[in-house]
């Protein structure tokens, strides 16, 4: 039996005049690098850009080149918002993260218990805490322990607020104070004396015993609202000249600003004077 005759191959399409043949292995529809006459590969062919924005016509097309000046002109007549710091100090937002503060209970005892959770939470390793035991003769905070050493290095602090989130007693909070200027690197390290909240009217300076019949739980719950007569009697016996006693000179006389805070306050005042603040 005779074999069927093979169908002849279809003729190849003719290349248009002047175009180069597709290189072997190239994908149809993809831009490929054209070859020069010497066989070198040139820059890839870039498909032509087509804007998706409809083209304007008429008056819009006429004004388009100067349209951008509209933004400039409209802003030229707006009220300027440049702040004149330090001549004018603009109040910060209420929740601004500024300098830290170590708070007290209403009777004057310190809230910090020296647990170091703030130091562990700090991502910049800016806080250093050492705790000590409270004793009957030196009770600084409710419970067993208090923060005897407390330092914050403001060259490291990034004011993220993670420390105040970690504090179990709300001892550590942040004020709105942002004017921090130290005389040296060591001068930017705030000690406990610099961070302790000022004594308010009616508070009794620590150390002194806890309110009689209470534990630290009553303090945490806010059930202690001020010093008792027994606490005042203890302070009279151990520190008869204490200015925070009712017969003393008052909390203003008792305020001892820490040395770092005092130097910083001088620096900030000097900077304000240089800035022309009266
Ligand atoms: S400030 Fe708060 S978190 Fe830090 S050591 Fe004192 S109690 Fe603990």
Automatic annotation (TrEMBL):
Gene3D superfamilies: 3.30.70.3270. It is found in: Cell membrane. Its main location: membrane. InterPro entries: 4Fe4S_Fe-S-bd, 4Fe4S_Fe_S_CS, NADH_quinone_OxRdtase_chainI. GO terms for molecular function: 4 iron, 4 sulfur cluster binding; iron ion binding; NADH dehydrogenase (quinone) (non-electrogenic) activity; quinone binding. It is a peripheral membrane protein. This is NADH-quinone oxidoreductase subunit I. Its EC number is 7.1.1.-. The gene is nuoI. Its cofactor is [4Fe-4S] cluster. It catalyses: a quinone + NADH + 5 H(+)(in) = a quinol + NAD(+) + 4 H(+)(out). [4Fe-4S] cluster 2 binds at residues 122, 157, 160, 163. Belongs to the complex I 23 kDa subunit family.
């Amino acid at each position: 039996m005779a074999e069927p005759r093979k169908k002849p191959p279809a003729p190849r399409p003719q290349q248009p005049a002047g175009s180069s043949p597709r290189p072997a292995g190239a994908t149809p529809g993809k831009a490929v690098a054209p070859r020069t006459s010497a066989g070198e590969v040139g820059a890839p062919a870039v498909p032509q850009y087509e804007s998706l924005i409809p083209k304007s016509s008429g008056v819009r097309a006429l004004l388009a080149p100067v349209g951008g000046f509209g933004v400039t002109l409209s802003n030229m007549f707006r009220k300027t918002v440049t702040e004149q710091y330090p001549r004018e100090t603009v109040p910060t937002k209420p929740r601004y993260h500024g300098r830290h503060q170590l708070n007290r209970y209403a009777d004057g005892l310190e809230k910090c218990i020296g647990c170091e959770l703030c130091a562990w939470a700090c991502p910049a390793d800016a806080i250093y805490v050492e705790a000590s035991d409270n004793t009957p003769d030196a009770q600084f905070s409710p419970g067993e322990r208090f923060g005897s050493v407390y330092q914050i290095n403001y060259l490291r602090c990034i004011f993220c607020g993670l420390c105040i989130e970690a504090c179990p007693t709300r001892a550590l909070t942040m004020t709105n104070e942002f004017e921090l200027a130290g005389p040296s690197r060591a001068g930017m390290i705030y000690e406990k004396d610099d961070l302790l909240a000022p004594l308010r009217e009616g508070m009794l300076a620590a150390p002194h015993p806890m309110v009689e019949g209470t534990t630290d739980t009553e303090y945490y719950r806010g059930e202690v609202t001020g010093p008792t007569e027994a606490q005042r009697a203890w302070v009279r016996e151990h520190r008869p000249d204490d200015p925070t006693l009712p017969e003393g000179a008052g909390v203003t006389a008792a305020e001892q600003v820490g040395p770092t805070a005092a130097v910083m306050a001088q620096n900030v005042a000097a900077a304000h004077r240089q800035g022309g603040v009266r």
